[in-house]
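Lecture 7, part 2: worked example. A protein chain together with zinc ion.
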Amino acid sequence: MDSKERIAAALKVATDTKVFEMGEGILGRVPEVFKELFPGRKAVVVADINTWPACGEEVFSRMTAAGIPTEKYIIEKEEFHAEWRYIEMVDKLLDGDFAEAKRLENDPAYVEADAKTAFRKPSDDFFVAVSVGAGVINDLCKLTSQHHGQGYICVATAASVDGFSSFGASITYQNAKQTFECAAPTAIIADINVIANAPKWMAASGYADLAAKVPAGAEWMIADLMGTEPIIPAAWDVLYPRLHTYLSDPEGIAAGDHQAIADIFEGLTMSGFAMQAARSSRPASCCEHLFSHILDMTHHRFHGKLQSHGIQVAVGTLTMCAIFDEMFKFDLTKLDVDACVAAWPTIDQEQMRAIEIFRNFPAPKLGYTEITKKYNDADTVREQLTKVKTVWPEFKKKLQAQVWSFEKMQKSFAIVGAPTDPSDIGVTRHQLHDMFEKVQLMRWRFNALDLAKRGRYYDELVNAIFLPGHAWDINEEKPFK
Ligand SMILES: [Zn+2]
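Predicted complex, written out as structure tokens:
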């Protein structure tokens, strides 16, 4: 199968996205696709000060030349994240209230409105968004289009994240990074000439966000074995059989090779289609992403700057590869299931533990809510551990075929220019160590750390990666550069 055939097959399992076109010099397709999908509607091109010159201006003039009534909106903030303020701003754009949108963008006294009030009754008078950008702009257009009961077109400007084709938008609201339900873009147009021209760190970021699927896939395999979230073949098959091939040319990414960058973009988009097929982000994200979510929720900055999604995820990905390296050293056929079950805490104890751990966190109830959802009773834990114990030798081999070693992942990241150490994003190894207990608790989905908790090897496992000579030797903190 070539790329076009793979994309055609993937679109069959994608529930929201109807069109995905990738190629060199294909911006002329934007007005054509718009007319097909949104006949008679008017458009607003949403860009920022970087993506406007990158291709927003060209998209705008091609739309106008094609006779489509088109407005433009350029976000002028140097730095903006996916926060509720900008959701309200783009909501106003789609309403056609451009002045109010600009006011919201710059309002120093801004107060978040209630998210529930954002939904409008669909109307053909609304503008249809043509999002020109990478992760953040796309997420803003995605959720606001949902609020307006309509689709939108995403013109990608960088191979930086997997969010282009995923449903759901990850937005900070009431101090917590939350995933809001919303449909993926109706169409994605990816001009590889534009994408290859994006700043180098963006492709490195995308490479890392795609590499995150290496440990995330293994954690899905664990959840599947535990019976909590079975693998969905349609979702798995869109991405995983080709994942290692997509990631196989870090040198090409570093050199700006168009084919290598197209491969990463395809892989990232496929992971979004996998999410659409699964109706969950399970195929694309597990613990490695949660380290990044903690940094987002605590407004982490390095050298005064917020760090991009993929760049933060790189550190989580390396960390989880290190966890798997250590996990493979345990012989889980020797689990003492009776002792583990006897020591298994009650739900009350787990809730208390979560409240304690998240006490000073911006979202103090998060751990409580999630552990309440994912708590298993002692009988279930007995079944789960018995299963792992029985199948461990073969299951371990399957996991090893999925996960890369820390060393291999770190080498690839060094080549593409992604972080190879937490210090690269302004995080110490001590801080990383302290994040673990939150990571284990902060999402309802079963992860590798949940298994370790059940098997009573959690402390030993987590501490192992910080030992002398191991991945993040805690005595070898690297100075921030
Ligand atoms: Zn991601």
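The mean pLDDT is 96. Residues 161-162, 209, 212, 285, 289, 309, 313 surround zinc ion (CB under 6 Å). Keep this in mind for problem set question 3.
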